Amino acid sequence: MATLVLEDGSVFKGKAFGYRGVAAGEVVFNTSMTGYQEELTDPSYYGQILVSTYTQIGNVGANPQDYESNKTYLGGFIVKEYIDHPSNFRSTETLDSFMIRHKVVGMYDIDTRMLVRKIRTKGAMMGILSSFDESEDQLKEQLKTYPGLVGRDIVTEITTKEPYDFRQSLWSLKEGYVEVYNKDYPLVAVYDFGVKKNILRSLVSAGLRVRVFPCTTPVDELLREEYKGIVLSNGPGDPTALSYIIDNTKELIKSNKPILGICLGHQILGLALGGKAIKLKFGHHGANQSVLNMKTKGVEITVQNHGFAIEPASISSSTYITHMNLNDDTLEGFVHREKPIISTQHHPEASPGPRESGYIFKEFSKLVYENR
Question: Which pLDDT tens digit goes with each residue over 287-338?
Fold first, then answer.
């Protein structure tokens, strides 16, 4: 048996799978039909409990090639129907065994549609998920001690501890992942706020050498001559709590080095340029978010995973908007009018289209080559 208690007092009962334990966090839902392993290993889900809107989960098992990081970061995973007999030629274990190893608490056999409707109506709420025999009152008391995400710096808890070089290209059916190194490729520095591996692979495949740095790295290190571009990565939580990163980004902007911001990195860029961040009612989480490319007037189907956004009207006049969300008119991208800066709220590395937004890495690479 498993129990979910929400901060509004709602209680959901279901069956337990995965790790047996207790997890508290912001309860959000993801609308993707597949890709649950990428979701489980995405550092941007740190401090959250994830609900899948797709009904059958577990049918493709799990494998070590689809990790977006070396571990899981979310606390709990809730699905309608758990499939314990995966059918996929790349699968090496069941989702259940994967979650047990990575200590992710799971629950299934509940009305996920009702739960999602509640979140859509009331907004994302704190919740606590337990697969132990605890009373609802006990869980409610435990939930009161959870600090939440707003105003909290959680990037320092997940960033890399030491700099490292990354040389792996994008996966292909024929070759899998390939190590790529060319000393003539320009070197870019990635500020790790919770970076996904496929962002790093996409940079390598775009003809760049990649070095990843902790989020606390002094800005002078990234401004060294050898680094020809800067990437501000994705990550979890509230961007307004990261004042030291915002200050560092203001210095990076002054340098005229090419900069690419993705998701949290996009929000950091927006704040550094004078923008205002807002907390979304229930966030954008899924692989079917429609985004309008303002230049081409084409619609891109994007992957998104964020609970905060930058208000379009607050962006500095030194930028112009390149992408807008067609569902709620939130800001999805901008470029600087004078400096080599590209910023995107959605995830161009996640390839739902399958690669409708992959051109963003090519555009950044072009800027790096032109300005090195």
Answer: 989 999 999 999 999 999 999 999 999 988 899 999 999 999 999 999 999 9
Side by side, which strands form the sheet with 277-293?
164-166, 209-214, 187-192, 227-232, 259-262, 341-344, 331-336, 319-325, 277-293, 299-310
Residue 310, helix vs strand vs coil: strand
Query: Is 82 within a domain?
Result: yes
Burial of 370 (0-12, 13-18, 19+ CB in 10 A): exposed
Q: Residue 36: give its domain's CATH number.
A: 3.50.30.20
In a domain, residue 80? The reply is: yes
The string over 250-260, giving b where at least 16 C-beta atoms fall within 10 Å of a residue's C-beta and e elsewhere, is bebbeeebbbb
Task: For residues 273 and 210, give the distance between their C-alpha atoms in angstroms, rounded to a whole number.
Answer: 25
The whole-angstrom separation of Cα 74 and Cα 78 is 11
Q: Which residues are catalytic?
A: 263, 347, 349
Q: Say if residues 232 and 259 touch (Cβ distance below 8 Å).
A: yes
Same domain for 168 and 128?
Answer: no
How many Cα atoms within 13 Å fall on the side-chain side of residue 277?
A: 27
CB 317 within 8 A of CB 344: no
Structure tokens at 369: 């080559």
Q: Is the pLDDT of residue 17 over 70?
A: yes
Structural domain harbouring 341: 155-371
Q: Using only C-alpha atoms, what is the Rg of the chain? A: 20
Are residues 121 and 228 part of one domain?
no
Whole-model pTM over 0.90: yes
d(CA 350, CA 355): 8
